[in-house]
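F.,

This is the one I mentioned.
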């Protein structure tokens, strides 16, 4: 399942830039501020910014906001990470009728200019590519920039924007403990670092301890708060999404994106756009929003052809305990609609809590098949993933790759054919999409 490579020039530039810092992640703003000053501060010339932090749901919330704004005729820049198949996915440039991924030529040109301005100084790959994205965003007109935090918030490279239109904080949970802290309060403090003085903060569902941290941070900055359950509400009623705030009630369709958690993400998107009074086509956007590898039903393709006839194959990049709980909930909902044996095919990174991710699936899964995460990632050995599953009472075995795992399911001869969920890592999800011939333009 080899990943398609970017255009050669872009690939070579990214390889050079990756060597400028010995650490892949080194949270700091000093290097970013130095580089942006050398570039004449593109971060001060951006369109109106909605800055999004949180543990889970950032990408889906941005996808909903983008779809709602574009359906209302707005040009929307989008910055997200990581990418799934091509680096270009991280930078979407607003255009009439809908945004487009940055071209190889435009990306290579921006990277060349940023590399020259950096002059060989130490800087992480995420920092220098974020600077390139800011150059592109300020040079192409748009109405809004939807800006996703890379990691944390307080010291993330995106946190150089000092006057966003709004800050949005999606649900906070335990993840990236090596960088953000081991408690929910510490992690929430890092996420709340994107809050800016007197700028509105729109907050999704939070554990009580996380919400208390966010509320204190907002109070210190005199930032108006819009909190789910206090200032706005969303729920599913009769197969519809019902949203309410002080400005009134919206009766909207259920999102095309699958899972009860997408009701929450869509509601947060609506709340954010209403908080800043941006014109948006809520109904059209909810129906159009698309976000690959988030409980995505895989279409026919080379990889899917390895599975036995009749098998449903779903893909999700979820990789932490909260993500596992959301996925298990969504699969229970699918099970109620149409019952099938559930098989997990999963690979995970060594930094993740495998047991925490898998625990919600105990009693729901017929079998787990552990595979390696392709590429140069610090993936856990499949044997260790399988052992964690077995420790939860989930029958588990190992396969050499996803294709082999799907092929082996044919020998189970189950009736009805099983429902397969490939999960555990966005890097694994990207490799699966690439192997199945996905076009993410």
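My design for it:
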């Amino acid at each position: 399942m080899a990943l398609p490579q970017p255009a050669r020039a872009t690939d070579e530039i990214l390889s050079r830039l990756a060597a400028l810092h010995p650490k892949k992640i080194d949270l700091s703003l000093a290097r970013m501020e130095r580089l942006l000053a050398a570039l004449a501060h593109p971060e001060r010339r951006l369109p109106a910014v909605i800055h999004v932090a949180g543990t889970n749901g950032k990408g889906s919330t941005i996808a909903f906001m983008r779809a709602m704004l574009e359906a209302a005729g707005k040009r929307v820049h989008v910055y997200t990470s990581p990418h799934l198949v091509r680096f270009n996915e991280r930078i979407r440039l607003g255009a009439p009728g809908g945004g487009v991924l940055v071209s190889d030529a435009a990306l290579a040109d921006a990277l060349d200019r940023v590399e020259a301005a950096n002059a060989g100084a130490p800087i992480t790959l995420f920092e220098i590519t974020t600077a390139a994205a800011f150059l592109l965003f300020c040079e192409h007109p748009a109405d809004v920039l939807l800006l996703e935090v890379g990691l944390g918030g307080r010291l993330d490279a995106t946190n150089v924007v000092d006057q966003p239109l709004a800050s949005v904080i999606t649900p906070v949970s335990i993840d990236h403990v090596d960088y953000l802290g081991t408690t929910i309060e510490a992690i929430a403090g890092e996420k709340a670092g994107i809050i800016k003085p007197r700028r509105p903060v729109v907050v999704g569902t939070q554990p009580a301890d996380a919400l208390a941290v966010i509320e204190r941070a907002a109070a210190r900055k005199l930032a108006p708060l819009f909190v789910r359950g206090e200032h706005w509400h969303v729920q599913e009623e009769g197969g519809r999404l019902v949203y309410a705030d002080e400005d009134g009630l919206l009766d909207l369709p259920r999102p095309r994106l699958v899972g009860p958690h997408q009701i929450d993400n869509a509601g947060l998107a609506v709340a954010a756009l209403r908080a800043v009074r941006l014109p948006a086509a809520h109904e059209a956007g909810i129906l159009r929003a698309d976000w690959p590898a988030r409980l995505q039903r895989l279409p026919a393709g080379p990889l899917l052809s390895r599975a036995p006839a009749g098998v449903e194959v779903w893909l999700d990049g979820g990789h932490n305990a909260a993500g596992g709980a959301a996925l298990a909930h969504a699969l229970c909902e699918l099970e109620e609609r149409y019952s099938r044996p559930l098989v997990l095919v999963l690979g995970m990174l060594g930094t993740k809590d495998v047991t925490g991710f898998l625990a919600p699936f105990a009693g729901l899964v017929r079998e787990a098949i552990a595979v390696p995460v392709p590429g140069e990632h610090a993936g856990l050995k499949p044997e260790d993933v399988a052992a964690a599953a077995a420790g939860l009472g989930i029958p588990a075995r190992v396969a050499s790759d996803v294709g082999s795992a799907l092929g082996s399911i044919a020998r189970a001869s189950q009736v009805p054919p099983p429902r397969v969920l490939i999960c555990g890592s966005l890097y694994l999800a990207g490799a699966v999409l690439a192997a199945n011939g996905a076009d993410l333009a």
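The CA atoms of residues 178 and 359 lie 22 Å apart.

Talk soon.
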